[in-house]
Amino acid sequence: MNPFNAVLKRKPDGPGQNLITARQARPLKNPFGGECRIRIEGADLFYGSARALKNVCLSIESRRVTALIGPSGCGKSTLLRCLNRMNDQIRGCSVTGSFTIDGTDLYREVDVNLLRKNIGMVFQKPNVFPMSIYANMTYGPKTYGVTARDELNRIVEDGLKEANLWDEVKDRLKESALSLSGGQQQRLCIARCLSINPKVILMDEPTSSLDPISTSKIEELICALKKDYTIVVVTHNMHQALRVADKTAFFLLGDLIEYGDTSQIFRDPQNDETKKYISGVYS
Ligand SMILES: Nc1ncnc2c1ncn2[C@@H]1O[C@H](COP(=O)(O)OP(=O)(O)O)[C@@H](O)[C@H]1O
Ligand SMILES: [Mg+2]
Questions:
Q1: Is a pLDDT exceeding 60 seen at residue 217?
Q2: How many Å lie between the centroid of ligand 2 and the Cα of residue 127?
Q3: Which of 95, 203, 253, 257 has the most CB atoms lying inside 10 A of its own CB?
């Protein structure tokens, strides 16, 4: 079974589940040729009657790393999932407000398949497919119609090089991806994400299951990738936010409490709740 199709073809969970898509019907556009600045305005999200995001407004800069921090359950993953419309799949989830890329509404003006091709996601646990390293890398491109062997080989090599994994795997591309270490698997997931040439990369605690050396490799990679991609990373690790993020947003119980340059948020937080959090009170 094609796991991409499983996600892409699933039907919405019924009328009224997603209030934004229910109000749609504008001509479709492709906003991914430009800078990819993301604006979130007045975002509210309910799981049933539980409000997980409360009137969130946030501008995410292009070719920068933005960290989302805050205690467990404050809505970081929920907000991340709004950006590639993964919450559309969740029964009882309703989203309102506006999510735009360079002015184009991600919910009303962009085809969801185009959206997911351009906004890649890397999860907490490396979710390599149980197939060869090579097949992991060609899966997405084949799904989107690339068939020429030379082209596929080029995508595999470029993606693995970009993810700093090529030298470690170039002689074992036909081996199972499951034979790689956890850190290598996570870099393969990032390489696989790059294989379909996204513009935005969302990462949900990408190093929380990894050892310190693998973590630092992923952090180096995040810093290198921002020259070409808009990156949003959820992290529990404040040192990681300081090391990789240009901008940091602090959330508490669904509210965006404070947002600014990472150095300002950590050295001179303006809000008392931010101060308490970064001094470890909640952790
Ligand atoms: N699929 C879901 N169904 C119902 N409630 C959910 C779901 N996902 C998250 N929540 C709830 O929404 C709130 C925010 O969760 P989440 O975005 O996962 O927080 P974080 O990533 O900051 O830990 C929590 O109260 C959580 O229990
Ligand atoms: Mg989370």
A1: yes
A2: 16
A3: 203
In a domain? residue 213 = yes
pTM: 0.91
> Residue 283 domain-assigned?
no
Distance in angstroms (rounded) separating the CA atoms of residues 158 and 186:
17
Mean pLDDT over the full length of the chain: 91
- How many angstroms separate the CA atoms of 198 and 268, rounded? 34
CA triple 77-273-282, angle to 5 deg? 65
Is residue 33 a part of any domain in this protein? yes
Q: How far is the CA of 207 from the centre of ligand 2 (A)?
A: 13
Residue 78, domain extent: 3-278
In a domain, 15, yes or no: yes
Number of domains the chain is built from: 1
What's the CATH number where 35 sits?
3.40.50.300
Task: Report whether 44 contacts 125 (CB < 8 A).
Answer: no
Q: Which atom of ligand 1 is nearest to the CA of 48?
A: 4
Instruction: Give the ligand 1 atom nearest the CA of 68.
Output: 22
What is the predicted pLDDT for the residue at 11?
A: 41
Ligand 1 pocket list (CB less than 6 A): 47, 50, 52, 70, 72-78, 90
Neighbours of 127 (CB within 10 A): 13
pLDDT of 165 over the 60 cut: yes
Cα separation, 74 vs 70, whole angstroms: 6
Does the pLDDT of residue 22 top 90, yes or no?
A: no
Q: Give Cβ neighbours of residue 275 (< 8 Å, ≥ 6 apart).
A: 269
Spatial separation of the C-alpha atoms in residues 113 and 20, rounded to whole Å: 17
